[in-house]
Hints:
It is built from 4 helices and 22 strands. By secondary structure, the protein is of the alpha/beta class. The strands form 4 sheets. Strands 6-8-11-14-17-20-22 form a 7-stranded parallel β-sheet, with helices on one face. The protein has a 6-stranded parallel β-sheet with strand order 7-9-12-15-18-21, with no helix packed on it. The protein is globular.
Amino acid sequence: MKIAIFGASGFSREVCDIAFISGYEEIVFIDKAENESIGDFPVVAEKEVCSLAQVGYKFVIGIGSTGIRKEIRDRYPDLNYVNLIHPTATFGYGQIKEVERRTGNIICAGARLTNNIQMGIFGVYYLNCTVTHDCVIEDFVTICPGANISGNVKLSMGSYIGANACILQGKSIFEKMIIGRNSTIGAGAVVTKNVPDNIIVRGIPAK
Length: 207
């Protein structure tokens, strides 16, 4: 199997680890400018994307920034994007089928997703994050290492949840705790109320 990873930074190397352990034998990185290699894997310029697609490469976007992931997907909407799931990630009843209905998600080692979670596309679920029951995760969301998303939470499109942040539980399946579009939750923050669109909150409680 062949896969091309957009990005050539630290996170893209972690994505390469997941690809390798998932059985991909031919792996390349895509960067703005061609470099020689990262470890045993070549780095090719972005101008090679169409050539890679023509010879059967699958694609994933190994970039943590929610906005850049969206820009790349919008620039190349017709590529064969896939999910990458580390084998140590765990899922509640029926949840893996929800993942398989989506595309472009990266789920790292130790991530825990329970059940009845609605998922979007091109999300990043970093190391050891948790997402529990009845959440809604929209497109292009990033959940950083160790972050905890309690039940009945909605993470709106493009939201970014910092490392070890905690989003407290919403009131019910019908009245969720909402993190607004393109908003950022600082590392270690504890969110106790809804967060509007396009802002940054931090601290305990998050403000």
